[in-house]
Amino acid sequence: MDILTLLPFIVLIGAMFLMTRSAKKKQAAAAQMRNDMQPGTGVRTIGGMYATVKEVHDDTVLLEVAPGVHAIYAKNSIGAVLDDAEYNRIVHGDDQELDADGTVVPDDASSLTGESDDVEVAKIDLAKDDAAEDAEPEDAAAKDVKDAKGESKTDGDADSK
């Protein structure tokens, strides 16, 4: 057999070896993370629930989901062990960077337009004026229109033929 015919098989076996090796490293790191869990640390389950570790057993872990609400989970269901700052930022909304920076982001975009509140906005009054009602009878006489037959009709009348 020629080495050239064996080369694709060698490359394929090497690629499979490298892929399984990296997967085993990820599994070992996840197992080490789960074994290093301590009571009081914040975790995220593989389902996306955030909780605090209360007790760690051989295959299970007792999590406090809410104050006074406890649940037993398998150790394999823990997706990530979070540090205290990240857990408090996600669960409690505490943001240390915002407090240190002092920057406040507005809830609406009105402050981003650059216009100050002192500018008066022209508002259109859609209510009828008393003066317009007094002038209406004069305008009604002017709006009478004569059609081709010489008949007088107002704006509200329609040609029906």
The largest sheet has its strands arranged as 4-3-2-1-5
Binned, the helix content reads 25-40%
Order of helices and strands: HEEEEEHHHEE
Global morphology: flat
Unreliable stretches (pLDDT < 50, length at least 5) are none
Average pLDDT figure: 77
Q: Figure out the total of helices.
A: 4
Rg is: 39 Å
Assembly type of the shown chains? single chain
Strand content: 15-25%
DSSP summary, beta strand count: 7
Q: What is the first-to-last residue Cα distance?
A: 100 Å
Describe this structure in words.
The chain is an alpha+beta fold and 161 residues long. It has four helices and seven strands; from the N terminus they run H-E-E-E-E-E-H-H-H-E-E. The strands form two sheets. The chain has a five-stranded antiparallel β-sheet with strand order 4-3-2-1-5. Strands 6-7 form a two-stranded antiparallel sheet. A hairpin with a 3-residue loop joins strand 2 (50-56) and strand 3.
List descriptors.
7 strands; two-stranded antiparallel ribbon; 5-stranded antiparallel β-sheet
Write the layout of secondary structure elements.
Layout: H1 3-35, E1 42-45, E2 50-56, E3 60-66, E4 69-74, E5 78-82, H2 84-91, H3 96-101, H4 130-142, E6 145-146, E7 152-153
Antiparallel strand pairs: 1-2, 1-5, 2-3, 3-4, 6-7
